[in-house]
């Protein structure tokens, strides 16, 4: 059942995270904005989309201000030694992202949660390699230099995420890429993914809305990361699985999903958008649940479908818990 009183967005999301009753299901969806390196433009785009246009329950700052190392620039094992520790006080990458959080917090106050999207260390390393195949080969052939690079990246991200929390973010949307057997074995992820994920996450121990996003279209190592120190788990439940119902049996953490990012939410029809939302509430019982897309919708999504989705949320009936 839902409460008769209207909650603030922070109260609503926090109640969902802790499994308490809510006045309605919290909702969030997103796509990329490409703000050309400016924290101010990132804040403006975030506020315009999440707050003004769609009145969503979470302001999710997108990862569109990239880590300061050229993509596809690693040609040889020795090139990994070019990755260095970053002075967070002098880094434009860190400063612009933190300034976006500060600007948003100044506008919305404490009534709306703000999260910063951060890719995991393995994802950043994958971006730096020429190809994913080359990177996986180097994990086997040159493990020491890869470990050194991942350790530096993880520490840079840990410091950055701590700074985000200190600047007013409520948590981090921590996107795990590489956490699928389509790319590497479980043994490789346990060696090259997990330790550096956990190192980076030390930066957000003071956050209450840390969301782990297990990225991928298939064969996710979902069970392998459920013990990560986060409050919410996000993944493409409609595309990659497991289903929300199956995930509820695996973890007591708050679940985030329900809409297929390439399905009705971005293409219609309206009845199917509602159908997926209602089905998600049935699968989860409406408790410890945030209704969202499984992953970013296409950037060219017609906003009329997103408007319909947001309007549907206000009319959804929460399942009774008897």
Features:
TIM Barrel; 322 residues; 12 helices; alpha/beta; eight-stranded parallel sheet
Any chance you could write out the topology, listing elements then pairs?
Layout: H1 9-18, E1 27-28, H2 39-53, E2 59-61, H3 92-108, E3 114-119, H4 121-128, H5 132-141, H6 143-166, E4 171-176, H7 186-192, H8 194-201, E5 211-214, E6 232-235, H9 244-250, E7 254-259, H10 264-267, H11 270-284, E8 289-293, H12 303-313
Parallel strand pairs: 1-8, 2-3, 3-4, 4-5, 5-6, 6-7, 7-8
Q: What is the count of structural domains?
A: 1
Structural class: alpha/beta
Q: What's the CATH first level?
A: Alpha Beta
Strand content: 5-15%
Low-confidence segments, given as residue ranges, are none
The order of strands across the largest sheet is 1-8-7-6-5-4-3-2
What overall geometry do the principal axes of the alpha carbons give? globular
Rg, rounded, reads: 19 Å
CATH architecture: Alpha-Beta Barrel
Give the % helix.
40-55%
Describe this structure in words.
The model has no long low-confidence stretch (mean pLDDT 95). The chain has one domain (9-313): TIM Barrel, CATH 3.20.20. The chain has helices at residues 9-18, 39-53, 92-108, 121-128, 132-141, 143-166, 186-192, 194-201, 244-250, 264-267, 270-284, 303-313; strands spanning 27-28, 59-61, 114-119, 171-176, 211-214, 232-235, 254-259, 289-293. Helix 11 (270-284) packs across helix 12 (303-313). It is built from 12 helices and 8 strands. It has an 8-stranded parallel β-sheet. The radius of gyration is 19 Å and the shape is globular. By secondary structure, the chain is an alpha/beta fold. The chain starts with 8 loop residues before the first helix and ends in a 9-residue tail after the last helix.
